[in-house]
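From the methods appendix. Each design record in this collection lists the tokenized structure first, followed by the designed amino acid sequence. Records were kept in a plain field format so they could be parsed without special tools. The example shown here is representative of the layout used throughout.

RECORD:
FOLD TOKENS (122 positions):
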């Protein structure tokens, strides 16, 4: 049974940085894409970034610009999201996600983490 466990969320000042971690277990990693979504109050859950386990080629939502970086560590079965130049609009619950498709789609994500709160103070 697959499990995705996020950590690293918290409170950060605007302009600061934060690194989220998603530890993945129970998956045939070579067949999956793992990434991140976020959801702020009153907004729909939106795609942030993803990475294919085998190719390690990342993909980012256009809205993220160059502020977010996704990476993975095969030895630790972990996917990371490094966020910089954070702004108040980045405040959201960030969810780790995994699916067999190359690109993650919200409605078709196979596995979700429980989410980790990121709050950016203004």
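DESIGN:
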């Amino acid at each position: 049974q697959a499990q995705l466990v996020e950590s690293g969320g918290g409170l950060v000042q605007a302009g600061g940085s934060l690194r989220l971690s998603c530890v993945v277990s129970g998956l045939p990693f070579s067949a999956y894409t793992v990434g991140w979504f976020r959801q702020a109050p009153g907004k729909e859950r939106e795609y942030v970034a993803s990475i294919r386990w085998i190719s390690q080629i990342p993909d980012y939502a256009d809205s993220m610009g160059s502020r977010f970086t996704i990476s993975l560590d095969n030895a630790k079965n972990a996917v990371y999201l490094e966020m910089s130049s954070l702004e108040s609009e980045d405040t959201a619950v960030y969810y780790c996600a995994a699916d067999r498709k190359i690109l993650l789609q919200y409605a078709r994500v196979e596995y979700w983490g429980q989410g980790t709160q990121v709050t950016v103070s203004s």
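APPENDIX NOTE: DSSP finds no helices and eleven strands in the chain.
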